[in-house]
Amino acid sequence: MGWIKKYNLTINILFWLLAVCICSVIILWKVNPDLLKPGVDSIFHAMYENRVIVETRPVVVKEVEEVEWFYFIATGYSANDPNQGTDNTTATGSKTREGIVAVDPKIIPLGTRIEIKGMGTFVAGDTGGKIKGNRIDIFFSSKEEAKRFGKKGVWIRVLEKDIELAETYS
Fold it and tell me: Is the torsion defined by CA of 122, 74, 129, 134 positive or negative?
């Protein structure tokens, strides 16, 4: 009786394997009828007909200039704010305007063009009593804008190649 159970189990497994094979062939035929054409080469021929051709082009590598970004604490200021002690004139003698930042001239020399990541290009054109070390003060046209900006960390880089930021502040 034990051999009959083994025989039934073997037949059952073979039946399901055959069913899976037949279903696979039907699915393949529905997807691509050319796969089942008579002849050994037809399967390979159908595979090559559907191949993807990738066109390659030479890659041009441009020389990339290394750019150093420096982390600073930034605040906002506006003109004629008695609480901040500001008027309409910068430390360089020009009129205050957007695009001017107050810096510590020992760190960033006055007149230096800088970029503040995500904000644009500015000129170091002013100084401030509380602006020491790695701090900058960004000019805004209104006191409300300056307040909204608040105090935050920013990344800056020097745009002029002949000027470097001071390594340490003494």
Answer: negative
Give me the domain span that covers residue 94.
70-158
Q: Which residue has the higher pLDDT, 69 or 28?
A: 69
User: Do residues 87 and 126 both lie within one domain?
Assistant: yes
- pLDDT at residue 35 greater than cutoff 80: no
Task: Please check whether residue 136 lies inside any domain of the structure.
Answer: yes
Find the mean pLDDT for residues 111-117.
90
